[in-house]
Amino acid sequence: MKAIIVEMGKDYCIVITRDGQFLKQRMPAGVFELGDEIVVSKEYSYKPALFNITWIKKMSLAASVAVVVVTVSIFSVLYLGHYASSRDEVFTGNYITVEDTADKEDDLLVGEIEKESYEESGLSEEEVTREVSVSEDAAEKTVVFKKVYSFAEQTEVEDDIEDVINFSYKIINNSNLRIKLRNISASSSFSGSINMIISLSDNSESRVEEISLEEFEPGRIEEYPLFLKAGESKLEVEITGIAR
Amino acid sequence: MLHRQSLESRVIEVKGNNYETSRLIYEFKPFIASVAQKKSGRFLEYGVDEELSIGLSAFKEAIDSFKKEKGKFLNFARLVINMRLIDYYRKTSKKRAFILESDNRYSANVKYNEMISMEQYQIDDERERRILEIIEYRVELGKWGISLETLADESPKNESLREQYKGVAKAIVKNSDILKAMISTKKLPLKKLENITGVHRKKLERGRIYIIAMVLAIIGNLSYIEV
Questions:
Q1: What is the predicted ipTM?
Q2: Residue B38 is nearest to which of A10, A33, A147, comparing CB atoms?
Q3: Which pTM was predicted?
Q4: pLDDT per residue over B3-16, tens digit each?
Q5: pLDDT tens profile A150-169
Q6: Touching check for A30 and chain B: CB below 8 Å?
Q7: DSSP A43-96
Q8: A59 interfacial to chain B (CB closer than 8 Å)
Q9: Using the beta-carbon criterion (under 8 Å), do B33 and A240 form an inter-chain contact?
Q10: A33 at interface of B, judged by CB pairs closer than 8 A
Q11: Domain boundaries along the sequence of chain B
């Protein structure tokens, strides 16, 4: 069966057949190009994780790390629990770390941001630890996202993009646009850029803001406050980059 | 949603506009990578391998120096990328003995005809059309937050299920109200679809990504697929 190459990875490619199947085929890089037609077969189908020794090693390591972290969490909660000043204090000894970003107006503290990230994820500590310990396949992923938002209809939005980036914004007092980017993946860092095109109600472009991210790590948050000018009514967001 | 402007017209339009040029380059990053990979014979990563930085700037150079008389843009871009990579490999090669040091940089304007004869192969029309369709398709999928990787992992392996979902996609495209609603809300109107196609909502939900991919393939004229 023939198919054309629509994406190329390190040791595989993704093809589409005439009858609309999307398949992954084992393929060394540098042999074919995007758009080339190849013959596909079951024996060359790409199975990234299951029978891979490296993957098994990775999972064992992740599993042992998870055991250690859970044990430490339990002991710390039990031991340190009575030192907590309020029941909202959160153990942050695991590997979801959050950067404090400058949000001078609200004067958020690091602790509050961390609390916020746990509350938003809706998970308890143990669940978070368990979730993070599942090691993902280390393959690189291209992230492409484009969406248009209307400020009049959407004063608050949130979008998860390919389980890597969470893009959200809030409009406060009709003029304050608070944009937030968060890496929601377990183990992938994102490098790329976020283009934000703000336009007026007649669809003419008012301005463009660009955020460049380099090795934006899991759990990190980037906040970007903007003051909206009169007449600005639409936001087109384009996110392109690589998660690995 | 998808305008069928030729790539050549778009390149001419985009010249001098930094923002639009960057957008075009971003969309064609997979093409640039695949040309550079073929030249280097190995997998290359953006942000890691120098060859891809050279590829990006060569692509930009091709945009800046492109004129309609130069024929198909992708052919031209491929030539410029390959020439700049040759320059790069010469510079970084340990062997000192190479010819034409003064003539090192191939001027895209002057050497064009010679480059055509030097290249052993060109992108033929059909392949060029396919590459453009693939690039556009990826961009459209991206607007829905769908990646080709996800499609490869989640699209139905069973032929009859696939045919059923394709039928749903065709039904959507035929019904302009549903199609418009889908495009503007970026959601599948499951209840309406269930009524029209008779396929249960849960089944539609499970095939959501594939159905959307097929709809985009039909309206985007991904000509390779026979839906």
A1: 0.79
A2: A33
A3: 0.53
A4: 557 899 999 999 98
A5: 999 899 999 999 899 999 99
A6: yes
A7: GGB---STT-HHHHHHHHHHHHHHHHHHHHHHHHHHHHGGG-SSTT-----SS-
A8: no
A9: no
A10: yes
A11: 7-142, 148-219
